[in-house]
Amino acid sequence: MRVFLPLLVALLTLHAGTASPQTVAPGSLPPPRPLNAPPAAPAPSPPPAQSAPASRPAASVPAQPTARPAPPRASQPAASSRSQSGSATQGRAARPAPPPTVGNRTPPQNRRPGAAAGAAAGAAAGAAAAGAASAANRPPEPPAAATPAPPPPPSVGPVSGFPLPRFASLRSDQVNMRVGPNTTFPIEWTFQRRDLPVMIIGEFQVWRRIRDAEGAEGWVHQSTLQGRRTVLVRPPANAREVTLHRDASAESGAAARLRPGVIARVRECEASSAWCEVQVAGHRGYLRRGDVWGLMPDEEVK
In this structure, which long-range contacts are made by residues 134-143, counting pairs with CB atoms below 8 Å and at least 24 apart in sequence? Predict the structure, then answer.
């Protein structure tokens, strides 16, 4: 009996190992397996079911309002018109017009060089070059003796008997200024502005030596000059124009603005006054003596 009892236990154990597996309810322990059997591979878990994306509602587009035509505006009367009842349109007071500006931005040319000026310039350049070449080989000269000062110019013209210097103006737009007091002398400059003021600084028979506002000097025939007094507008430094005042005062209103190079006719100028009454292209007013060229200091013009 004791011999068959262990054999019976072994048979029962072998029979239990070869028995068909039992279905295990979910959540319970796995069934027993033999000691030498390999571990069973875990069953693949099914992929999680993907929920279908919920359909999005279509975006609602707001309906655009239908454009309505703008109501017609009532025609407004002009700002300058008045109603039948006589009431004037109210507005800002009109500003006074600025004074007119007389003259060009670029002063006109008063004269042009004559044929003799170009030849003289070429001869001067040639003489300067020759003089420079000869000066290099020339021995030093002894100092020259001091020459006496020239006598002062006469205060009265020897031909006319009028004071020197004095002012006059050109009679025409074509006045030739020559190097000497004769038609045989070449023309150095040709003036092309009528009424241009010039200063007479010398006389010889029917010829007058003149000087213009730029410092050019030469001889003109007396028939090309006239006694009408004019002045040339020459503003002070850094000034683009000169004010023609209505009265002989800097505080008075402006009658016009005069640019450089404008010629004004002198109407009256007192000897002790710093202002002179002039006329420019229909505008009458007063200018300072220091703003023009063509007047002697403290000169009286009537």
Answer: none
